[in-house]
Structure formats: structure tokens, C-alpha cells
């Protein structure tokens, strides 16, 4: 990973220069639909107006001159941390009704002004946008937002790779990392809280970034993390069951995603309509929408055709309105990556790039061979040695199906485990899924958390053996631990024409065992095992620890 002074810390990115504004100037720029913010106590009447040069909701991130916005959390209130914010140099505090009483003692005698607004979360995004001046009218960077259950990370990398191929400098906000020009920090959330989002967007502008891609999780929409952000193009991949602990039902999960596709949030949209949620979204989106189908839906504006296997990847044609056509190649295995690449291409077209320029950029730079850390990441080519984030039965099935080379004597060897303290019922299903698709199934540890590792493995093994015995499957099932040894065993059993898939942990660099983070990076272990057994590691591989 290319790093800078902020790497490895959770310190949010911000622009180097922020125009100082008085609190009055900041409040007067708020959108009209928001009710007035009330001054509760502290300076303004007669005293000096506080000058604001930053904003945060986290007392641990306060820098001198910040407006500290104290919001209620699930278990505690940000106002409980007012003293910490004041000590760090906050210039003013904004909170809600409940927060004013909590914040007041820490402010007494400080002379710092306290403001009140409810619900205070409604104000955070718009205020951060004003304070950091993150999205002025000149439209730079062009902002792409990607949402959906699967494929967000990969699609954002593909959007950026294509934008870069078109000669644009790029920025990224997502699960793996946040990138603004040369500055890169590892991510904590898929979509950061809104003060960080606006700070990052402002830094991107400052660094001259032309185009930025951002993953928008459903949590982000629910928790208002993209308030005050305006996308040029929003893209939708798919919707399958997930995160119902937060959303309660698929209907509410869909509603959270659909909220991104409204005129106040995005100029236009690109929606894959290969599931019923995508079709509904395309019908209900309140903005100009291009539809895309990989599964051959005739009514789609853009369709993927002539998908042909090309090594582990695929070539395909993207056909659009008026006979428009693009000839594309996706180097990452899997039909789902064809969908991700096609979505990225249509999003770029929707933002205004011409089809001839896009074709030229693709021909010259092959952007969809870009490496996405831990997502179908090809560590070696002979045998094909892949690390993928598939960590549930559906993703494991899709991934195993996509790496099998039909009509050859190539075997598939898979290494995986199941996470501790999560959905116990999926363990045997994952075992059976692998036994049905792989020639050698090596069951090992994932993140056990506080659970007993042997017990987790037993659940997966039971499913694999039951499927093999009941269905007469011709696969070898092994239990090997620890995980690094399992990876080594898989490589030791592989021949050059085989495929070795290490599934589950993707780009993670720690294994969480009983509250301790033990360093473990599947990609590093796989590369070491390949070398140990006389195979080569793919050059230019992106393995960062
Ligand atoms: C469920 C959820 O999203 N919770 C988020 C939420 O936590 P919370 O409401 O419990 O906040 P809290 O910790 O009680 O703190 C309340 C307030 O006090 C502040 N505080 C707290 C402590 C302190 O010392 N000083 C301080 O100022 C906090 O910044 C916060 O503003 O606000 C916190 C501060 O921003 C987030 O870190 C936290 O994300 C947690 C870590 C999380 O795991 N979120 C996941 C579920 C999430 O958002 N995931 C999605 C992706 C999902 C996917 O697609 O896989 C994502 O976008 O990452
Ligand atoms: N379009 C897709 N449809 C279905 N599965 C996909 C798709 N794209 C990727 N996957 C699978 O999901 C895994 C995660 O992919 P990716 O990280 O791009 O998605 P994501 O939406 O960002 O998920 P997460 O937020 O969990 O990282 C991949 O490793 C692959 O196994």
C-alpha cells in the first residue's frame, strides 16, 4: 500500500486549508428545510463569535477550531464526551435536547458556545459540507456512488481503473481503503461518518482529483453518513438477504438502498435489473436511469452479450442504445465480475465520457484486470492461486463455479473455514457447497472470535462429509489447521493446471482469536507457499500488510 503520514492511524483525512467561518456564517448557509439552530449558552451574545475550521462527531478526533457535534449513539450520547472535545480545542458544541444537559457541565466556565438542534443528525452532513466546502458548484471531482449487497468494492475499483485509463486522477472511499491522490489510509467502515466523508471529498478537491468512487452501504444511508453528498452517478449492483438485524425486513433494506436514487442525492443512476429489487428500483428511481442486464433482459438499455471465457476471466460485448457497442475484457474470474465491470463501464458513460474514448481507454489499458485486494485476487497463475472474500454459502458457490475450468484435467482445491459466533447454520451448508464443487476440500479456521476452533471446523466438516456420502461425490476432504498450514497443504497438493482458492478472509491482515488480533494475511501465506513449492508468484501483485 502506498502510504503517507496518516497511514495506519484512524485520523480522518481533511483538506490542508479550510476557510475559517464564523458560526453565524456556517448556520446561515444551512439548507432552508432545516429548522433553526438555537444558541443555548456561551459566547455569542456580546462575546466573540467562534470561528469554525473543522467539524467532527467524535471527541477523539477533535482538532482546534472544530465544531463538535454530539449525537446520540446506540448505547451512549456523544455529549458525554464534551469535556474531551473541549480539552482538544473544540470551538463550539452542537447537540440535541438530551445532549444539552449532558454537555453543559463540561462547558461551564469555558466560555464556549453551546447550540441545540433536533434531530441533531439531520444537521451533521449539511454542516460538514459547508465547513469543509466539500462540493462546490464546479462539479469536481465527478462522484460515483455504488450500492447493493455484493460487488460494491469491486465496482468502485473498476470505476476508478476505467477513469484512470481515461487519463483522470482518481479517489476512493470504501471497505478496504480511502484514497485521495497519493494519500491513502485503511478504512474502518465501508462508508465513513459524514464529517469524514466531507473532509475526504474536500481533500480530493484540494489534491486535484478528477473522479472519485465511493461505496455506499445501507448502514450509511440509515445512519445519514452521505447526507449533504451529491453524486453524479449512483450505481446499483443487486440485493440479496443481508443486514436484516439493522433493517428488519427486505422491504426496509430495499428502502434504505433506494433512498440513494433520489434527486437530492444523485443526478442520475445506473441499475442492474437482473433481480426483482433492481427492476423495482429502476421503475421507482426519481432520477434519469439507465438499466443494465447481464442475464439478457430485453428491456434493459445496456445488455451484456457474447460472454466468452478468456483464461480465468471473460471477454464480453456491452450493447447499448442506438447500436452502441463496447468490446470489454474482465480479467477477474466470475460472471459476477462481468456484471461489476459492465456496471462500472455504464456508470462512466453515464457521467459523460464518450463511447469511442472509453473503447480506446479499454484497449490501451485493460482496466478490468486491476487487482482488487482480496477480491478474486490472483496471487499465482500456474497453478491459478486465488484469494477471495467469499464468506457465505452463496458467494462460495458462485466463486467455485466461476474458477472451474470445464473439459480439462484441472482440479479445484479450496481452503476455507467459518467465522465463530456467527450464523451456526451456515457451517454445514458451506461444507456441502464446497464438497459439491471442489476436488479437494481443506477445512480450516477463519476468525473464531471467542469460539472453540475445533467445534467450528466440526460443523463445516459434518456438512462436507454428509454431502459427499449421500451424493457419492468424488472429493477429498481434509481438516488442516492452523490456516497458514492449510494454505501450504493446498499448494503442496496442486499441479500447474489446477486452481487453488483460498476463501473467506480476503484482504484481512488479522485473525481474531479470543480477543487477540494475530497477524495473518492469506495472500502473503499463499505467495510464500507457492514459492516454497517451486511455483511462481504473479508479478506486480498488490499484497499489503
Ligand atoms: C451500528 C453502527 O453502525 N454503529 C456505529 C455508531 O455507533 P454507535 O451509535 O453505537 O455510537 P457510540 O459508539 O455509542 O458513540 C456515540 C457517539 O459518541 C461519540 N464518541 C464515542 C466515544 C468517544 O470516546 N468519543 C465520542 O465522541 C461517537 O463518535 C458517536 O458519535 O457510530 C459509531 C461512530 O461513528 C460507528 O463506529 C459505529 O459503527 C460500528 C463500529 C459498526 O460496526 N458499524 C457497522 C455495522 C457498519 O456501519 N457497517 C457498514 C457496512 C455493512 C456492510 O455492508 O457489510 C459500513 O458502512 O461500514
Ligand atoms: N456482483 C456480484 N454479485 C454477487 N457476488 C459478488 C458480486 N461481486 C462480488 N461478489 C462476491 O462477493 C465478494 C465481495 O465482493 P465485494 O467486496 O466487491 O462486494 P461488497 O458489496 O463490497 O461486499 P463487502 O461490503 O462485504 O466488501 C466477492 O469476493 C465475491 O465473492
TrEMBL record:
Binding sites annotated in the UniProt record for UDP-N-acetyl-alpha-D-muramoyl-L-alanyl-D-glutamate: 59, 190-191, 217, 225
Single annotated GO MF: acid-amino acid ligase activity
In-chain residues carrying the UniProt-annotated modification N6-carboxylysine: 257
Enzymatic class: ligase
Location(s) in or outside the cell: Cytoplasm
Entries under SUPFAM superfamilies matching the protein: MurD-like peptide ligases, catalytic domain, MurD-like peptide ligases, peptide-binding domain, MurE/MurF N-terminal domain
Cell cycle keyword on record: yes
Post-translational modification: Carboxylation is probably crucial for Mg(2+) binding and, consequently, for the gamma-phosphate positioning of ATP.
GO biological process terms, semicolon-separated: cell division; cell wall organization; peptidoglycan biosynthetic process; regulation of cell shape
Mur ligase C-terminal domain ranges (all copies): 374-506
Location of the Mur ligase N-terminal catalytic domain: 51-99
One Gene Ontology cellular component: cytoplasm
EC number: 6.3.2.-
Cofactor: Mg(2+)
Positions with a binding annotation for ATP: 148-154
Keyword Chaperone: no
InterPro entries named in the record: Mur-like_cat_sf, Mur_ligase_C, Mur_ligase_C_dom_sf, Mur_ligase_cen, Mur_ligase_N, MurE/MurF_N, UDP-N-AcMur-Glu-dNH2Pim_ligase
Family of the protein in this entry: Belongs to the MurCDEF family. MurE subfamily.
Protein name as it appears in the record: UDP-N-acetylmuramyl-tripeptide synthetase
Origin species: Arthrobacter subterraneus
Amino acid at each position: 500500500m502506498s502510504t503517507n503520514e496518516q497511514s495506519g492511524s484512524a485520523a480522518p483525512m481533511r483538506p490542508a486549508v479550510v476557510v475559517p467561518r464564523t458560526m453565524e456564517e456556517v448556520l446561515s448557509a444551512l439548507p432552508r428545510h432545516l429548522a433553526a439552530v438555537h444558541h443555548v449558552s456561551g459566547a455569542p451574545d456580546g462575546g466573540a463569535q467562534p470561528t469554525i475550521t473543522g467539524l467532527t462527531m467524535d471527541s477523539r478526533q477533535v482538532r482546534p477550531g472544530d465544531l463538535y457535534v454530539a449525537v446520540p449513539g446506540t448505547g451512549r450520547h456523544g455529549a458525554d464526551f464534551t469535556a474531551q472535545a473541549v480539552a482538544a480545542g473544540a470551538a463550539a458544541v452542537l447537540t440535541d435536547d438530551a445532549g444539552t444537559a449532558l454537555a453543559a457541565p463540561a462547558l461551564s466556565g469555558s466560555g464556549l458556545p453551546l447550540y441545540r438542534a433536533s434531530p441533531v443528525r439531520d444537521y451533521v452532513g449539511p454542516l460538514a459540507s459547508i465547513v469543509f466546502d466539500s462540493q462546490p458548484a464546479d462539479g469536481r471531482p465527478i462522484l460515483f456512488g455504488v450500492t447493493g449487497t455484493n460487488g460494491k468494492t469491486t465496482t468502485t475499483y473498476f470505476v476508478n481503473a476505467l477513469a484512470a485509463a481515461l487519463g483522470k486522477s482518481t479517489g476512493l472511499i470504501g471497505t478496504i481503503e480511502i484514497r485521495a491522490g497519493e494519500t491513502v489510509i485503511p478504512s474502518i467502515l465501508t462508508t465513513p461518518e459524514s464529517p469524514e466523508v466531507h473532509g475526504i471529498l474536500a481533500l480530493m478537491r484540494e489534491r486535484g482529483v478528477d473522479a472519485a468512487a465511493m461505496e455506499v452501504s445501507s448502514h450509511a444511508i440509515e445512519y445519514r453518513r452521505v447526507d449533504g453528498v451529491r453524486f453524479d452517478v449512483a450505481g446499483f449492483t443487486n440485493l440479496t438477504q443481508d443486514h436484516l438485524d439493522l433493517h428488519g425486513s427486505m422491504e426496509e433494506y430495499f428502502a434504505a438502498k433506494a433512498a440513494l436514487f433520489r434527486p437530492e442525492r444523485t443526478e442520475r443512476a445506473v441499475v442492474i435489473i437482473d433481480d426483482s429489487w433492481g427492476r423495482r428500483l429502476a421503475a421507482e428511481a426519481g432520477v434519469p436511469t439507465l438499466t443494465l442486464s447481464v442475464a439478457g433482459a430485453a428491456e434493459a438499455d445496456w445488455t451484456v452479450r457474447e460472454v466468452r471465457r478468456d483464461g480465468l476471466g471473460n471477454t464480453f460485448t456491452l450493447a447499448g442504445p442506438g447500436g452502441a457497442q463496447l468490446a470489454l475484457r474482465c480479467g477477474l474470474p466470475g460472471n459476477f465480475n462481468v456484471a461489476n465491470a459492465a456496471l462500472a463501464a455504464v456508470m462512466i458513460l453515464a457521467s459523460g465520457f464518450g463511447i469511442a474514448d472509453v473503447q480506446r481507454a479499454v484497449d490501451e489499458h485493460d482496466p478490468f484486470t486491476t487487482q482488487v485486494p482480496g477480491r478474486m485476487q490472483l496471487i499465482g497463475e500456474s497453478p491459478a492461486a486465488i484469494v477471495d472474500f467469499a464468506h457465505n454459502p452463496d458467494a462460495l458457490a458462485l466463486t467455485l463455479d466461476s474458477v472451474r475450468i470445464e473439459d480439462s484435467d484441472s482440479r479445484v482445491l479450496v481452503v476455507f473455514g467459518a467465522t465463530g459466533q456467527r450464523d451456526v447454520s451456515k457451517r454445514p451448508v458451506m461444507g456441502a457447497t464446497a464438497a459439491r464443487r471442489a476436488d479437494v476440500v481443506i477445512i480450516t479456521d477463519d476468525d473464531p472470535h471467542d469460539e472453540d476452533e475445533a467445534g467450528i471446523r466440526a460443523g463445516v466438516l459434518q456438512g462436507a462429509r454428509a454431502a459427499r456420502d449421500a451424493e457419492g461425490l468424488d472429493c477429498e476432504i481434509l481438516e488442516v489447521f492452523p490456516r497458514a498450514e492449510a494454505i501450504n497443504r493446498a499448494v503442496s497438493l496442486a499441479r500447474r493446471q489446477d486452481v487453488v482458492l483460498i476463501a473467506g478472509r480476503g484482504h484481512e491482515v488479522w485473525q481474531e482469536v479470543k480477543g487477540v488480533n494475530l497477524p495473518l494475511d492469506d495472500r502473503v501465506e499463499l505467495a510464500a507457499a507457492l514459492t516454497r513449492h517451486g511455483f511462481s508468484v504473479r508479478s506486480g501483485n498488490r499484497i499489503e500488510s
